[in-house]
Amino acid sequence: MASTFRELADWAVAFAPTESDLRLARTALTDTLAVALAAEHEPIVEHTAGLPAALRWTAIGHTLDFDDVHLPSTSHISVVCASATLTVGGGDREFLAAAGVMARLGTALGWGHYQRGWHATCTAGAPTAAVAAALGLGLGAEGVLRAMALAVPAAGGLQRAFGTEAKPLQVGFATDAGVRAARLAAGGASADPAALDHWFDLVGGEHGLDLSGPAVPDGLAVKPFPCCYALQRPIGATRLFGPVPLDQVASVEMLVEESTLQPLVHHRPRAGAEGKFSLPYAVAATLVDGFPTAASFTDAAVARPEIVVLLDRTAVRTRPGGSGVLAGDTTIEIGLTDGSTTRRALHLPPGHPAAPLAPDELVAKITGCVGPERSRQVATAGWAEAARILAGAFPPDTTVPEPRK
Predict the structure, then answer these.
(1) Which long-range contacts does 199-204 make (Cβ < 8 Å, 24+ apart)?
(2) How far apart are CA 98 and CA 102, in angstroms?
């Protein structure tokens, strides 16, 4: 690697955010808080009752798959880094330093790591959560390094979990392991930092760690639709058609790069959670609903008769190869009953760092998540207030004392 993990720990401890970094942190905190609160009626809230804050808040925040994404690392950075930061009373600097570590570590693991079926959010997430928590606990570079090494045994997750509750839970496990590792490091637990390099080789790290640039190189993608990021572009492309009379749709064909299907493991979803990882369903739901919301990804929604009819008329074609979930373009072609066809193509999905949501679109997302009465509170909440809101909505186990800052 171009930089060692020791240099990465040094970088995290010395990190000083710019104004641009702080704006990114502001959006990330708001978005993460909103999507967590939007999940207040999901089964995972009951299933994680009584568990530690890091596990609980991460799993709940990720359960709708509505949280942001860092594309080069193919990972959900904010739900991990924000939850770990909030758990130990940290703020902007701790979050951004950890986010920077996760962006670089996940990118260094590479597309090949993801392509082999690893869930990079968990793989890179456990040592990264350790960074956020270690910084929040006031550890220096040596302590951060030991915390990362102590988190390595939990640094793994599988894409096969996608479409089940195991997906957000395994992200929660990784975050909790990182926070636990930082507490152990703060208490003096020892670890061999060389384990980090050994682990990196075992999970197939491909590239060097570049410590230059902003906190999060290439920025974060904020989702307008509550489903896998690989579906944001197909949904955006389908919305370019505008309203299409369903009784006039004879066929729907999607043309995508093969790599974009890597996380889309469900063709005919049987449950709402599976629909979040189904290309045919996402396009069908967009044709039916216009703008897919959480209501589009329920068990009842995937079983709608009009959806079943559209899925029977749907085909997916792939171009071989590609690298990443946004390789190439997404093309949607609709064949009509009168024999005509119409086609739309899209390169960048809405919410991509190069095509960010407009301020009013972000406000609309927050309002849709928490309602108009709570939207201002969420939009203006700082780190301490966000922690209080989450603790009130989703009380964690409090057997481990939280630090005072």
Answers:
(1) 199/152, 199/155, 200/1, 200/5, 200/108, 200/109, 203/109, 203/113, 203/118, 203/123, 203/155, 203/156, 204/109, 204/110, 204/112, 204/113, 204/116
(2) 6
Burial 188-201, CB ≥16 within 10 A → b, else e? eeebeeeebeebbe
Q: How many residues does the chain have?
A: 405
What order of strands is seen across the sheet that includes strand 341-346?
A: 314-319, 249-257, 330-336, 341-346
Question: Which residues of the chain form CATH 3.30.1330.120?
Answer: 229-346
Task: Identify residue 24 by its one-letter amino acid code.
Answer: L
CATH 1.10.4100.10 in the chain, residue ranges: 5-224+355-393
User: pTM, whole model, 2 decimals?
Assistant: 0.95
Alpha-carbon span 277 to 269, nearest angstrom = 8
Q: Which pLDDT tens digit goes with each residue over 102-144?
A: 999 999 999 999 999 999 999 999 999 999 999 999 999 999 9
5-224+355-393 fold: 2-methylcitrate dehydratase PrpD (1.10.4100)
Closest CA to 43 of 213, 271, 250: 271
Q: Which helix (H) or strand (E) holds 319?
A: strand 314-319
What is the tens place of the pLDDT at every residue in 17-33?
999 999 999 999 999 99
Structure tokens at 152: 């390595």
Q: Find the helix or strand (DSSP H, E) in which 311 lies.
A: helix 305-312
The CATH number of the domain covering residues in 229-346: 3.30.1330.120
